[in-house]
Structures are given as structure tokens and as C-alpha cells.
């Protein structure tokens, strides 16, 4: 019982609970309960209304457009575009996770099912796997389910109409009536083999963060030893970013080589991926080294927490996140700029496709480089217990 009378026992219990709260929020709070919402998808309606033998018209495209856009249960935000080329361009520009293309002969194909030579039209579903694999799955599953519902409704309606005209239905027509509209799925910006189902950018980001953190810690300690040996503070700290950039360049190159050679990761843009990862590593190093030089060893706690809070978000589409996770963490964490930039390099065509993510990293690197060098202008604190000798 004596152990329960010790203050440290109860203080330790509180510390354990605080640790569980912090790391629980980092590892679970950001991902549990998340669900897709307002996933941007392009809708292209090229369908031309078809004339029916009874004098009426059939406009399947407009009917589908109305049903899809008015359906509030689907986690999709529709954008109506005028052509397939415009939709594909939007996917390439990372504006949409996918597209649904309703062809010009959609109504004519459905109307043909009542005749002797049915020719069902083909609707196209396009999903961008490279932008986010989870969102691409949502697009395929959501649109696939919608098309099955549309097919079921059209099949029932056509069977009811034909039963009034004849009791016998040709086999070819009966088969076509099972699926009045054909569905073709296409995946663009595929992630390739051994890319952790599209999560490789987030994985590389996490590993590079740890490599840069070790680099920052080693050079911080080395700088401290050099200054104890008589080296000037400003010149010593000024050399840290130079050494850091060199080491992160070597580390990022080794990481790319290890991923492809040891683990078979398919990297269509290996050199450009290395160059961007080098920028990422250098940015991480500037941030980490600046905090270490200004705050000291306690900065490690901040940096480790930043990593743990950021990790669950790196491979998730922002549309999947809660408002709190999106606004309080995702919107500003530097790790997400790296993960997003790597997706652009690896799956969208290389460095030419990198936009705001690279600009954000250059800005972060520049700001923390200034802070790092500025820390060299501070006066070093005298060690505790050191006697001050007056003249």
C-alpha cells in the first residue's frame, strides 16, 4: 500500500491519461468516423433525345442527370461539363476524382431495345486512382451502384411496355433488357505495382520526415560540441543547413533506390521523384533544425507530435475528413504538401505537374532557413554552476 501513498504514482497516472488523450486524438480522432462527402465528379451529358414509334420522345440522359444531381444520399458533388475532353482535362488538373460520360446515343440505344435489333449504349465511368485511391473506389462503387439502379428501373419499365404489346420476347431482346445500358469503367493515373494501393506518397513522406529529424538532431548535437570546443556560434549554425541539404539529398536518393530495388516499388518518374523528395527532406530539415536551435531538445516532443497528428491524414482525401481534422491539422501541416506533391510527381507526369505544393515547400524552407540562421545571433547561455569572474 505504500506505493499508493507516493505522489509520483498519482502524478504518473495523470501523465498516462494525458498521453492516451494526446496520442488517441492523433491516431484515432483524425480517422475514426470519417466518411466521404462532396467528392467532386464531372458529369458529361451528350445524350440526344430519341423519337419513339408512338410519336413521343425518350431522353434518358436528362432523366439520369436529374436523378443523379438530386440524389442527396450519394457522397458526390457533381459538376456539369460540356465534353469528355473537358472532363478528362479536369481530372488531369486534379479538379475531379472521376467522371461519368453519358454518350450521345444513350436514348437511341435504350429505344432500340423494343425493336428486333437491340443496340444498348455504353456509359463510361472514369476514376482517377493517382489522386486518391480511396476516393477512386468511392467513385467506382457509387456510380456503379447508381447505374445498376438505373438499369433496373429501365428494365422494369421496358418489360412492362413490351408485355402489353406481345407475350413473346426474342432471346436477344430479353438478354438486352437485363442490362439496358452497358457500363465501362476506366482507371486513369494508375498507381502502378507495389505502391501500397496508392499510399506510397504518404509512406515516403513519413520515412523522409524521420530521416530528416535524425539528421537535424545529429547536426544540432554536432554543432553544440563544436561550439563547446571554441567554434563561433554563427558560423557553426550557418553550416548546419549546408550539411543538412547534402545529407537529405543523399538520404532521399537512397530511399528511392531502396523502395524500387529492395521492395519493387514501380516508379515511372524515379529521378524526378527523388528531386522532389530531396526538396521535401530539406524543408523538413530546415523546420526541425530551426526549432531545435531555438528551443533545444524539448522541440523533439513538438516534432514527434506533429508527425503523429499528420500521419493518419496523408493518404486520405480531404473530402473524407471531419471539419476539425481538415481545418486544425490538414490545412497547415507541412507533411501534406509533400504527400500531395509526390502524388503529382509519381502519378500525374513528373515535376512539370507540381504546382502549389512545391511553392508551399519552398516558402516553408525559406522561412525556417532564416529562423535557423537567426538563431546563431543569439547569445549562448552560460552553463549552470559556472562561476562568473569579475575583473
From TrEMBL:
It is found in: Membrane. Keywords: Membrane, Transmembrane, Transmembrane helix. Pfam families: ABC2_membrane_3. It comes from the Bacteria. The chain crosses the membrane at residues 207-226, 238-259, 271-287, 294-314, 359-377. Its main location: membrane. It is a multi-pass membrane protein. Residues 7-373 form the ABC-2 type transporter transmembrane domain. PANTHER family: PHAGE INFECTION PROTEIN (PTHR43077:SF5), TRANSPORT PERMEASE YVFS-RELATED (PTHR43077). This is YhgE/Pip domain-containing protein. It comes from Cohnella suwonensis.
